[in-house]
Every structure is written in C-alpha cells, then in structure tokens.
Amino acid sequence: MRTVKWILPVLTMCFSALPLTAQCEESVQTLAPPNTSASLTFAGTSNGNLGGSTSVSNVNIHTLLYPGHTTKVLAHYLPWWADPASRRVSVGYRSDDPAQALRTFKDMQARGVDGVIVDWYGQTDTHGGQPDTRDQPEPIDVAWRKSMPELAKFPDLSFSIMVDSGTYSFNRCKDCDVTQTVLSQLDYISRTYFSSRQYLRYNGHPVVFEFGMDWSGKVDWSRIQAAHPEISWIHIHKQGFDRDYSAGAFVWVTAGPAAHKVSVANLSQLKEFYRYARTEPAKIATGGVFKGFDDDLASWAKPKEKQYMPQACGNTWLQTFDLINQNYSATRQLPFLQLITWNDYEEGTALEPGIDNCVTLQTHLSGNALAVKLSHAATVDHLELYESLAGGGFRLMNRYAPATAVIALPASASGTLYLKAVGKPFFRNVLSSPIMVGRSE
User: Are 427 and 382 in contact (CB under 8 A)?
Assistant: First the structure.
C-alpha cells in the first residue's frame, strides 16, 4: 500500500520534522520564490504590507476584468523612496536607482500592468511632501527622469503625470498662487514629457491627472486649460465630472476612522463614483482598485485623523473589481483603471509586495487519491501539481481548478510532489509541504 501522511500548509520551506534534506528546502523555495520588485530586505509592516520575500501571483491583472474589455490598467507610482529613509517605513530601495526602476517595470509588465501614473510634486521637489530632508532621494522629478531610460526598455508601458497638491505646498514659484504654480509646472511637463512616445494619450491628447490642487487654494482651471488646450485633465472624484473644462475623473480610496475599525470595507463612495460616471458618458472615467488602507505608519497622518479600511483577506481587492464588472461591459468600456497604489507603504496600500489572501493549503494522501483542503479559494486562480526530479528540477504534472477537492494521482507516481495554490492577480502564492508518494516494501 502507499504511504499515508497528513501534510500541513507551509509557504516556502519544509518542516524540519520531516525526514528531508536541505535540498528540499531549496527546491520548495524554487517553486515559490520571491518574485517582485520589493526589496528582499523589506520585512513587511504592521499596517498590512507583505515582506519582500513573498511569492506573488503573476497571473495577468486583466483576467479580473469583464470579458471584452479594452481598459488600460495603470499603477499609481511613488518615486520618493530612499534607504535609509527619514520616513517611518524603510522599503529597502531608492527610487532614484535605475536598477530598481528596471526591476519595477519588469515586475509591472509581468503582472499585466499597462502603464504608470507618476505621483509628481513639481520640477524642483526635494521632499516628496515631507519637511525632513535627511537621507532623502533626489527630487521626485529627477528620480523619475532617471527611471525613464529603463521604462524605454518596456515600450508597451505608458506613463503619465499626476500633479499632486504637494506641488504648491513645497514647490510653488515665487509669489505665485495655485493657478500660477500649476501653469509654471505645466510648461515644464509639456517640454519634458509630452514628446515621449510612451506618454499616455487619449484621443491623441496627453493625459494629466490632478490630485487635490484645490485643497491648496482656488484654482482657475479654465485659464489653465486655455493655456494648454492639448491636455486632457482628469480630476479627483466627482469634481472631475462636474467641471466644464475637465476631460474626466478618477476615484481614490476613501477609508473610515481607524478608531472604529471594521471587518468589511465600506465601498459606498466607490459605488457612487461609478453611478455618477454613468450620467457623464462623454467624460473619461478612471476606476480604482485597492486592497485596503491603513495610514498608521504615515508621519503626516494626525493621530485622531488616522484612517483604516480592512483588507479582509483579499475580499476588498476582489470587491473593487466586482464593482467595475457590474458597471462596465464590452459595449460600455471603462477607459482607465488605477491600481491604488503600487508602493505607498506608509498608507498600507502597497501592491508591489503582493496581497495577503490568508490562504492555507492542506493535503491528505490515501492510495492514489490526494485530498485537498484549501481556505479562501476565491482568491486562488488555480492549483498546480509538481513532481520533484533528480538533480533538483521539477515537472509540472497538471493544473486544477481551485475548487478541486480530490486529485487522482497516476498509479506510477512516486517520490516527492508539491501542490501550489497560485493566487489570482497580485495575491501571494502558497505551497504545500512535500507530499511523499511511494510504495512500502
């Protein structure tokens, strides 16, 4: 008869209690290796960011969208990191490092991302929105320009600029109001970026996003549009639909008070955005998806104003896609979708190191039947069964639906097998402990 053994879940290494060699540990890591642009030295944070050693699904992000979509998926990107950092979170890399930029764009492309929205603080920014300049990277604009030669190696990736309110707070021109500051920065953006073949365009017009400039003071958007009629402006939230000179609107994550944490995300504001977008079909709607929110580690968040939205083991991420699929179709397309965010570790929205789906994976071998017990199956794209080969290699034996309860193994199967739960896009992958298959003497 075949051996019978309960196998407990494990992510990247074998239990030392099992009679296996060090080669097993190395082999398991090979099947589920760290594979993102997050730093291997990043250990994860208490506000919901996974560590850089996580194995993350690179199933294409577009598989979560409705059939027949033409939506471009754009990652909100923050090129302001330095290490060591003056911030409360050290991510283990510098944004002005071209090698890191190359890893980032390679990772984005592997996951199916179509472009980058650069959170931009102005031509002369040196603080990334922070007053403390210790160990800061070079200005955000300089860091991004250093990244562009690496982006050029991925010609299918686009980029666009999001003019952040920090542009006025930290980099306004002398004696300028908000409108004059925006105009001065637009002249630079136009000269520096619009000529790039990779700059994001809609109906031939360069797209510029705007984040909260009106929070800094009254802005004369009609004057700005008249000065740069070539630009398609996309403004934050409902105001992007209401303004006469706006080309469209994008939605942002809205969380509740951290003092009253809830277990289920309140997505009413997101629902309202899509409802309102239906009344403005001529405007460019940029949807938003996110895993959750927790600004407990953000130095700019005042203690009594901290906000929180639960990740709910990946349910929040999936629900934000469900809302898109309920409101759009092949006959009513969503032009752009923003991933919020690629790497804002301080607000707990970083998608770069993946999303924790809380998956556990157990297997029970009896004869030729391998029983599978998988938690949080809604976050899993598929299962993969691997056979360990002599010399340290692996052979993919088959793929299965995540709902598979029993796998019938071939009678000839023997040796060491592994079952891998491959997550839906951006979720972590989970690997079983070794499954020992063999005939007893």
Answer: no
